Amino acid sequence: MSTVLGVFDTTYSILRIAFLALAIAFGILCIVDWLVRTRRVNPMGSVGRFARRSIDPFLAPIERRVVRAGALPTNAPIYALVAVVLAGIVVLSLFGFLRAQLFALSLSAGAGARGLLLLLVRWAIGLLQIALIVRVISSWVRISPYARWVRWSFVLTEWLLAPLRRIIPPLGMVDITPIVAFFAIQLIGGALLRII
Question: Where are the alpha helices (DSSP H) in the chain?
Answer without folding.
Answer: 2-37, 46-50, 56-68, 76-110, 113-140, 151-167, 177-195
